[in-house]
User: Fold this.
Amino acid sequence: MITVEQALDKILSYATVLEEEESPILDSLGQVLAEDVYSDIDVPPLDNSAMDGYAVRSEDTGGASRQSPRLLCVIDTVPAGSISSRVVEAGTAIRIMTGAPVPEGADSVVMFEDTDEAQRQGRPAEIGILRRVEAGLNIRRAGEDIARGSMVLSQGTMLRPSEVGVLASLGRAAVRVIRRPVVAILATGDELVELGQPLPAGRIYNSNTYSLAALVRRYGGIPRILGIARDSESSVVAGLRRGLDADMLITTGGVSAGDYDVVKDVLAKQGEIAFWTVKMRPGKPLAFGTVEGVGEAGTAKSIPHLGLPGNPVSSMITFELFGRPAMLKMMGKRNLAKPIIEAVAESSVANHGRRRIFTRVIVEKRDNQYFARLTGPQGSGILTSMALANGLMIIPEDKGVVTPGDVVEVMMLDWGEE
Assistant:
């Protein structure tokens, strides 16, 4: 058996960054930029008002107060999206809405609350300024956010909603990004029944495919469901052939003669086996290798293949630990690790097998300290233990038992990596 770190290093050595693609900016959310983005405009393009109010010359407000307003003649109104043709001269003001370009001659904007507009009927012909203002007040300068010619986003940046907004402010409808990996998922087992079908005695529904497909989608990949392969080499091979143009292949489950016997035979004949078991629980029977697939234009390529355990908890945890980082690397992401925190254990866990254990826990913060308690029974077939958990408590190989009060590490499942 190899360690968790050795398994991850081996898997990541087979994961390569994928090709670039042109993507609409909204579809690119969560992807990694494959280009430096420069601006060919100023943002904002013109000096504009940061408030609804009146564009004035600051010198015309000298001595203004609520007791002694300075009266100015209102010569125009300019809404956002329009440009006034009038010039603000001594003794005049232009009513202006937020975002509208500042008229020529004005050097400040007095917000409505600092005028007597509320006491006037309709659109006033004159306005009382109730305070003295400095030049530049409530004015957003042209290019103060983004200057023409500047690099706004660098290659390798992961696109969050804020970066999508920046791209939109530049007028960019599309952007070059690292494409999303296609992950093909094949469940194996004579006992499996597809969703929506009657459930005969002794059978179970194919939950693994859908929990894994949901994880693939959650982490930015494109799941491709290949269906169910029965417990025969020919059925597994036929199932895998439907996914030979994917970027990663995942199988789940074993056979009655012994876990992964069929998958192991297929790997040996269709590609190579890199390793077979990992020193962890759950998830010890984890297979990894490659299968010969088909790339663009019919060229041959080696596809990383993860043979995950059939138990639903083992399947999800091994994907979180190994499949997810491989996917993220393919997408060009740099931070591949889930956040890990320290917490005080509130449950006892024994480690009899001297393997690394990942137990499902509920983490809560109380008095600026994290606490972790088991979700309940920890059997690898109890899928609800994953539904209840927001973290995985990590028990090292050399720790025989965790007792309440021990400080432990917890990998947080629902916190973002970035």
User: Anything to note?
Assistant: The first helix runs from residue 4 to 14. The domain at 4-18+180-330 is CATH 3.40.980.10 (Molybdenum Cofactor Biosythetic Enzyme; Chain A). Helices lie at 4-14, 161-169, 207-218, 233-241, 261-270, 312-330, 384-388.
